[in-house]
Write a structure and sequence with these properties.
The protein is mainly alpha-helical and about 290 residues long. It has a domain of about 200 residues: f41 fragment of flagellin, N-terminal domain (Up-down Bundle), CATH 1.20.1330.10. The chain is built from seven helices and six strands; from the N terminus they run αααββββββαααα. It has a two-stranded antiparallel sheet. The protein has a two-stranded antiparallel sheet with strand order 3-4. It has a two-stranded antiparallel ribbon with strand order 5-6. Strand 1 and strand 2 form a beta hairpin. About 25% of the residues are buried.
Length: about 290
C-alpha cells in the first residue's frame, strides 16, 4: 500500500489535535485545581462529587441559619443585660425612698426611675435585622411605649410568637425569646406602681418592692434560658462547621489533582508537539509546515 503525503499529513493533524487537546485539558485542570471538568471525565467520581457538593450546600444553609439565630439570641441577651442593670438601678432608687431623710426628694427619685424605665423600654424595643427582639412574630410596632406620665404601656399586640429556623434536616430551633416572657413578667406594672406612689408623695410599699424583685427574678430566668439557647447554637455551629470542612476535604479528594504530576505531563505533551513539528518538517522539507 502506497503511503501518500496526504495520508501522512492527515495522520500528523490527528496527532497534533490529540496532543493540543491533552495540553488544554491539563492546563484547565491546573487552573481549576480539579481533574473533573465534565461528566465523561469520570462518571462515578462526578456523581460522587455532585452528591457531596449538594450535602455541603445543605450544611452551609443550616450553618447560616444557626449563625443568624445565634446572633439574634446574643442581641437579645445584650438587651436583657441592659434591662437588668436598669432594674437594679430602679430597685436601689425605690429602696432609698424609704429613708425618712429623703421624703422631700420623691419627685427626683421618681424622675430617676422614669429615666431608667425609658432605657428599659428602648432595650425591649431593640431590633435585629429589622425584627423586634421581643416582638414575637409581629413586627408592626413597638412592644412597649412610654406615656405622657413617664410610665410604660404594653402594646395590645400578641408578642408570644416563636421564630423558628431549620438547623438540620430534622431539627428546628426557636431563635427568639417570645416577648410575652418579658411583658408578662410583671416588670412594667411593678415599676409603674412605684412611680405612682412616688408621684403621689408616698414611699413605695413593701409589696411593691417585692413585686419588683419577683419580676426581676423572672427576667433573670429568661436570661438564663437565653444563655442555654446560645450554648446549644454554639455547639450546633461547631458541628456544622466541622461537617462542612469534612465535605470540602472529601470533595477535594474526589476532584483533586496532583500539580507536580500534571506539570510533568504538560512538559511531556509540549515535547511531543515539538518533536512532531520536526518530524513533519523533515518529511516535507519545502511544505507549509516549515512555517508552523
Amino acid at each position: 500500500m502506497r503511503v501518500t503525503e496526504g495520508m501522512i499529513a492527515n495522520k500528523y493533524l490527528f496527532s497534533h489535535k490529540q496532543i493540543t487537546e491533552k495540553q488544554m485539558k491539563i492546563q484547565t485542570q491546573l487552573a481549576s485545581n480539579s481533574r473533573i471538568e465534565t461528566l465523561s471525565d469520570d462518571v462515578a467520581g462526578s456523581l460522587d462529587a455532585i452528591n457531596v457538593n449538594n450535602q455541603r450546600k445543605r450544611t452551609d444553609a443550616f450553618l447560616k441559619n444557626v449563625q443568624n439565630a445565634n446572633n439574634f439570641v446574643k442581641a437579645s441577651m445584650n438587651s436583657l443585660d441592659r434591662t437588668i442593670e436598669e432594674i437594679q438601678n430602679i430597685s436601689t432608687a425605690a429602696s432609698s425612698a424609704n429613708n425618712q431623710m429623703v421624703n422631700q426628694s420623691y419627685g427626683t427619685i421618681a424622675q430617676s426611675i422614669k429615666d431608667s424605665l425609658n432605657s428599659i423600654v428602648q432595650s425591649i424595643n431593640d431590633k435585629y435585622n429589622g425584627m423586634y427582639l421581643f416582638g414575637g412574630t409581629d413586627f408592626s410596632g413597638d412592644p412597649v411605649s412610654i406615656d405622657t406620665n413617664g410610665k410604660a404601656v404594653i402594646s395590645a399586640t400578641d408578642h408570644s410568637g416563636e421564630i423558628k429556623v431549620q438547623i438540620s434536616s430534622n431539627t428546628k430551633e426557636t431563635m427568639n425569646i417570645p416577648g410575652d416572657k418579658i411583658t408578662g413578667s410583671g416588670i412594667f406594672q411593678a415599676i409603674n406602681d412605684i412611680i405612682d406612689s412616688l408621684d403621689s408623695g408616698n414611699q413605695p410599699t413593701a409589696a411593691q418592692l417585692d413585686a419588683l424583685t419577683n419580676a426581676n427574678n423572672k427576667i433573670l430566668n429568661v436570661q438564663s434560658l437565653a444563655g442555654e439557647k446560645v450554648n446549644r447554637l454554639d455547639g450546633m455551629e461547631t458541628i456544622l462547621t466541622n461537617q462542612n470542612t469534612n465535605y470540602e476535604e472529601l470533595l477535594s479528594n474526589i476532584q483533586g489533582i496532583d500539580p507536580a504530576k500534571l506539570s510533568v505531563e504538560l512538559q511531556e505533551q509540549d515535547y511531543l508537539l515539538q518533536v512532531s513539528y520536526k518530524l513533519l518538517a523533515n518529511s516535507f522539507p519545502k511544505s507549509v509546515f516549515d512555517y508552523l
